[in-house]
Amino acid sequence: MDNALYVGLSRQMVLRREMDIVANNIANADTTGFKVESLMTKEQPGPPAMTLQGPRPIKFVAADGVARDFGQGGLHRTDAPLDLGIEGQGFFKVTTAAGDRYTRDGRFRVDETGRLTTQSGQPVADESGGEITLDLEKGAITIAADGTVSQGTERVGKVGVFKFDTLSVLEKSGDNLYQNTANSQPAPATEARVRQGMLESSNVQPIVEITRMIEVSRAYEQITQMMNSEADLSRNTITRMGRLQ
Fold first, then answer.
1. Torsion angles phi and psi, residue 3, rounded to 5
2. Among candidates 195, 205, 187, 185, which has minimal Cα distance to 88?
3. Hey, which residues does 11 pair with through a beta bridge?
4. Cβ atoms within 10 A of the Cβ of 99, count?
5. pLDDT for 164-209, tens place per residue?
6. Can you tell me the distance from the alpha carbon of 200 to that of 33, in angstroms, rounded to the nearest whole number?
7. Nearest to 195 by CA among 131, 130, 147, 136
8. Secondary structure (3-state) at 17
9. What is the per-residue pLDDT across 39-57, written as a single tens digit (0 to 9) for each?
10. 80-98 burial, b for 16+ CB within 10 Å, e for fewer?
11. Quick one: three-class SS letters along 175-240?
12. How distant is the alpha carbon of residue 144 from its chain centre?
């Protein structure tokens, strides 16, 4: 009976982790470029249990990483000239002190030196990985669908958009950024389109996530009830055995 409690406990631990992920999805439903996540699980064999019929296998429940849906979020218009949304697969490259990072969050600005940066001041890379410098006195900023940045008739740079053959190499690194954890380098996302004056919404579907939260909560309650029943059965068995002695 203890084995049943341990198996139930392993399931509860996984459900708590899943609840954290669902709650984080809901909390980021309005975060620009956020991608919905879900918990993957696996069976984890344990030492076999000895019964009257001989050893019986025991399998626990364990987390097996977080899956991320990189599907397209809706684009909504802001009309801010430095707000950029990506239509299609690809990421903006951002230069940080810890190395290159990637994002779908296109809320950019110009810092005091004229560099195109993220809201937190990290430079946005051009197609070759360099910085993009703007001079606001040269007039309106126009960014074409291929990322080309112009002021008047002058071309001043091109916002880089990059793609990965395997998106599983990307891990969250904070500040709505992703880190490339593999040695393979991204390629230019030539089929993606940059939309000026627009931002990509998160692809979280709040109704779906709330439904998942209810399902996880109910599953947790059911496991708790099962464990309580097993504990009561164990106590009753011990009491009866004590009376027979």
1. -60, -40
2. 195
3. none
4. 10
5. 999 999 999 999 999 999 988 899 999 999 999 999 999 999 999 9
6. 5
7. 147
8. helix
9. 999 888 766 654 545 556 7
10. eebbbbbeebbbbbbbbee
11. CCEEEECCCCCCEECCCCEEEECEEECCCCCHHHHHHHHHHHHHHHHHHHHHHHHHHHHHHHHHHH
12. 29
Residue-range domain boundaries for the chain:
2-70+204-244, 75-200
Q: What is the pTM for the complete model shown?
A: 0.84
CB 62 within 8 A of CB 6: no
- The answer to whether the Cα torsion of 176, 208, 169, 116 is positive or negative is negative
Q: Identify the sign of the CA torsion 118, 197, 187, 167.
A: positive
CB-neighbour burial class of residue 36 (10 A; exposed 0-12, middle 13-18, buried 19+): buried
